[in-house]
Amino acid sequence: MLVFPQHASHYGCEKQILKLVEITSAKWTCSASCIKCYVDNGWKYLLSTPCKHGLREAEFIEQNPKLQNGGSDSGGGFVENSKRFMVADNLHISPISSISLIMTKGIDFLISDVVEKEVIVDKAKVLSLLGVMLISKSVLTDVFAPKQKRRSICHYM
């Protein structure tokens, strides 16, 4: 995953910033008949004759779950319109508004701990995020927060 990052089929979009490769949709072939006749026949193959619909085999293609009628359209973006999200240090994503921030339950933080930051995420930053998330519980802080300079204290006697 870290060497060749890909995203699941049907989760791509036209405005892809990172240019990640999308895994191709799965295809299956039922060499018995159409799926309806296969199920109606008690999941038994009709080897010698075609089914009542005239098929000897059927191909099944994974459909896009984001579209009501299936299809292969990749969509325009991750969200429909301009939306704001809160991404916690553990990479939990939730929609954000002033009221949702105040009413957030189950997350222990102070309002003063919340930092609004706009970041540009390129492929190198994503790979950095993937690497840090394997070893840290504060991924966003480790990747995006500026490293504080440590003051060296010298004691002279």
Automatic annotation (TrEMBL):
<dbReference type="InterPro" id="IPR007750">
    <property type="entry name" value="DUF674"/>
</dbReference>
<protein>
    <submittedName>
        <fullName>Uncharacterized protein</fullName>
    </submittedName>
</protein>
<dbReference type="Pfam" id="PF05056">
    <property type="entry name" value="DUF674"/>
</dbReference>
